Amino acid sequence: MALTIKDIKKLLGEEAHNLLTHKCSTIPKAQLHLPGPGQMAKIFGASDRSKKVQQNLKDLYGHGRLKNTGYLSILPVDQGIEHSAGASFARNPAYFDPENIVKLAMDGGCNAVASTFGVLGIVAKKYAAKIPFIVKINHNELLTYPNIANQIMFGTVEEAFHMGAKGVGATIYFGSPESGRQIVEVAQAFARAHELGMFTVLWCYLRNKEFKKERDYHVAADLTGQANHLGVTLEADIIKQKLPETNGGFKAMSPEGKYGKFDERMYTELITDHPIDLTRWQVANCYMGRIGLINSGGASGKNDLAQAVRTAVINKRAGGTGLICGRKAFQKPMDQGVELLHAIQDVYRCKEVTIA
């Protein structure tokens, strides 16, 4: 049974009224390029993306329970490298088997599955034609001692192309000492992917220990918004970003104004502390929604279903394009993972959840 607006309100609890009735007075929705049937075809039809790239994007947006709505629900499982396999799959060892990852994405009604060269490659001939593959081409691994945060390439764009992938994904740790090299590597990889006709997805994450002060500014709207803007500059076709939780990162990083640049209107007129307004700033930095913003689902914990629905409501009402949710789904028995993915999709299918 699909979630109704009544179910969504119940899951949102005390936040329901605030999240479902809020109206953005910062950046009005009339200025945004909003998701909808045919919207991506219109936007990319005017771009430099080839017909093959546009066709693969059409296949992505035309798959799963959200097909042809303009919204996306993607299952990402690269945690076997990013967070170590044991820590990621001990809760549900079935997902050591790559086939179960793909089955969860298919049974969960997702638009695509995003994972590693190894996971998708080992089942490519069986499943690449059944659900869009997005190959994550770089990772941060956790065996280097002491642990470091550094995204390195694990394969080539050509490998992803030959296994039948429709898109490639990559992460840049903006703000890290290694970010300059990562920007160059990803820019070159994305250009090659577009040459081969594949679309591109960029995980625009911030990473620097100095970003953690009295608040965690890795999830500040101003800093993540700028990361998104760097991502679309690299011609990412979809931006993945963590849901913002605060603001004022530029100010906190340098009270003397020696880090980055900002305009006071970012804090007084264009962004409030409301979660939808914070997220709208992320959307605005994705060329006012021309490039779709998908927010991450976050770690698994208590009340995962309610938290996933909350994130989806915020993303949708802000003008975002969907959710990319992994751990909340695969760290559960498959039937519960499917239920959670369907709940996320039901938010985007629900006409009563409107753009703020």
Strand order of the largest sheet: 1-2-3-6-7-8-9-10
| Total strand segments | 10
Order of helices and strands: HHHHEHHHEHHEEEHEHEHEHHHEHEHH
N- and C-termini, Cα separation: 26 Å
Q: What do the pLDDT scores average to?
A: 96
Commentary on this structure:
The protein is of the alpha/beta class and 356 residues long. It has 18 helices and 10 strands. The strands form 2 sheets. It has an 8-stranded parallel beta barrel with strand order 1-2-3-6-7-8-9-10, surrounded by 6 helices. Helix 12 packs parallel to helix 15 and helix 16 runs parallel beside helix 18 (334-349). It is globular and about 55 Å long.
List the SSEs and their pairings.
Blueprint lengths: L4 H8 L3 H6 L17 H7 L5 H11 L10 E6 L1 H4 L2 H5 L8 H10 L4 E4 L1 H5 L2 H4 L5 E4 L1 E2 L12 E2 L3 H6 L4 E8 L4 H18 L2 E8 L14 H13 L4 E4 L7 H5 L11 H4 L6 H10 L7 E5 L7 H15 L3 E3 L2 H4 L3 H16 L7
Parallel strand pairs: 1-2, 1-10, 2-3, 3-6, 6-7, 7-8, 8-9, 9-10
Antiparallel strand pairs: 4-5
Structure summarized in a few sentences:
By secondary structure, the chain is α/β, with parallel strands linked by helices. Helix content is 42%, strand content 13%.
Output the keywords.
two-stranded antiparallel ribbon, globular, single chain, alpha/beta
